[in-house]
Amino acid sequence: MSTNSLPLTRHSISAARTTLHPPHIHLTPVLTSTTLSALASSPRGSGTAGERPAQPTLRLWFKCENLQRGGSFKIRGAVYALGRLLEGEGREGIEGAEEERKDGWVKEKGVVTHSSGNHAQALALAARDQNLPAHIIMPSIATPQKIAAAKAYGARVYLSGSTYSEREALTRQVISTTGARLISSCDHPDIILGQGTMGLEMQEQVSALMNSLNPYGCDFGFGENDLGKGGLDGIITPCGGGGMLSGVALSTEGTGVRVFGAEPSFQGADDGRRGFYAGERVKQVETMTVAEGLRVPVGWWPWGVIHGRGLVRGMYSVGEEEILAATRLVWERMKLVVEPSACVGLAVVLFDDEFRALVEREAGEDGWDLGIVLSGGNIGGEAVSQILSDESARL
C-alpha cells in the first residue's frame, strides 16, 4: 500500500474525513435505548470474591455502523485507503510484485485482501466504485451471505482454509500471480485513519443530541440528569485486527474520552487483552468464536496505538453465551439487525464485572455516557434463526 500516509493523529483523521462523503459512505445514526441503559445500570450476578455486584450508572449511545454502506464500518477504511493508493500511484514501489512501477498499475492489476467477510465486501465495493479489479481471499467457512455479497460487488473470490495463516498464504500466492496491490483489513495507517472517522462522527453526534432542546430518543429513564455532561465519557469498540479500535482511540486523543476494547474469550480470541496486559503483541490466533469478524490477531500498526502510545484505557473479553445474549437484546429491544461481532462491546458492558466495577468506581453517582459501536450487520437469516432458537442466548 501507499507509503505517503499521514501521521497517526486526531488531526489526520479530521483530514481523512474531508475525503469521505456520500455516496461512498453513509453518515450512520447514533441511537439510544432506555431498556439497555437500564439493564447496564442494574446489578448482575453475585459479584466477585464475595463482594456485592457492581451497579454503575450508564447512559448508552449506539453508533449504528450496521447501517453503513456494505453493512459495516469497514467501508470507511477501504474507501480512504484505496483513494490514497490511487493518489500516490507511481511514487512508490509495488508490494508483492517484481515488475517496475508504472502509472495505472492499480487500475490494471487491481487490489487484493483477505478477510472473513466485512472488509472483503468493503474493498470489493470500493474497488467497484473506482472501476478496478478486486481479488478477495475468504475462508471457506465464511457465511454464504458474505461470500455472495463480495461476488455481487464484482470481486473475484478465492476460498482458503479456515485459519488466519491459511488466508495469508493464499493471499501471497494471489499477489504473486496477479500483481494486485494489498490493502490490509487493519494493518496500515490509511485503514486506521479511515476507520477513525467514525469516532469523530460519534463524538459530534452525541454532543449535538445532548445539546438539543428536545433530543429525539434520549430518555434514559434516569430523571433530570438524562443527558449527562455534554459529551461522551468513554467509547467501547469490538477489537479484531484493531483498525477500528486504534482509529477511534486516535479520534479521542486530547479530549479526555476514555477508549476500551472488547474481544471474545473463546479459544484465545482475546489476543489483544492478553497482549495488552503482558506488554507484548500476540501474533497468532486460531479461534472459531461466534464473533467471526474478530478471529484475527491485532496488527502491528494498531498495536502501536493501542498499547505503544497508551491511547486505549483497557481491554476486556466475554464468552460466547454473553455475546449471543447481547446480540439478541439488540435485535429484540432496538429492532436492529447486527452480527455477533458487533455486540461484543455491549456484552462487556452488561456482563464483565471488572469493567462494570471500574465505571462505578470512577463515575460515581453521575455515571458515564458511554458510546458503543455496533460495528456491522452482515448476518444471514439462517444464523439469526439458530441464535433465536438457542435458549442459552438469553439474559
TrEMBL record:
Name the coenzymes or cofactors required.
Ca(2+); pyridoxal 5'-phosphate; Mg(2+); Mn(2+)
InterPro entries, sorted: Ser/Thr_deHydtase_PyrdxlP-BS (IPR000634), TrpB-like_PALP (IPR001926), TrpB-like_PALP_sf (IPR036052)
For this UniProt record, give its keywords in alphabetical order, as a comma-separated list.
Lyase, Magnesium, Pyridoxal phosphate
Q: Domain Tryptophan synthase beta chain-like PALP spans what residues? A: 57-350
* Record GO biological process: amino acid metabolic process
Its domain of life reads: Eukaryota
Entry annotated with the keyword Magnesium: yes
MF GO annotations: ATP binding; D-serine ammonia-lyase activity; L-serine ammonia-lyase activity; magnesium ion binding; pyridoxal phosphate binding; serine racemase activity; threonine racemase activity
Is this entry keyworded Lyase?
A: yes
Write down the SUPFAM superfamilies for this protein, in alphabetical order.
Answer: Tryptophan synthase beta subunit-like PLP-dependent enzymes
Similarity section:
Belongs to the serine/threonine dehydratase family.
Name under which the protein is recorded: Tryptophan synthase beta chain-like PALP domain-containing protein
